[in-house]
């Protein structure tokens, strides 16, 4: 009977949905920190050539 297995899957997903906002926020913060570290550690040289500072 496939619907008994579907019930188990839906029950698992309903329990997972309690933690879903925390998982998404944690993943978002991790991506943000990863991007910030990547930009600080290895600046892009093409961007420096395009957006160079002009000193007067």
Automatic annotation (TrEMBL):
PROSITE patterns per record: PROKAR_LIPOPROTEIN (PS51257)
Transmembrane segments: 20-41
Keyword terms of this UniProt record: Membrane, Transmembrane, Transmembrane helix
Protein name as annotated: Ferredoxin
């Amino acid at each position: 009977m496939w619907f008994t297995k579907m019930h188990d899957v839906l029950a698992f997903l309903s329990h997972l949905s309690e933690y879903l906002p925390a998982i998404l926020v944690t993943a978002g913060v991790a991506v943000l920190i990863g991007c910030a570290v990547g930009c600080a550690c290895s600046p892009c040289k093409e961007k420096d050539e395009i957006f160079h500072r002009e000193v007067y």
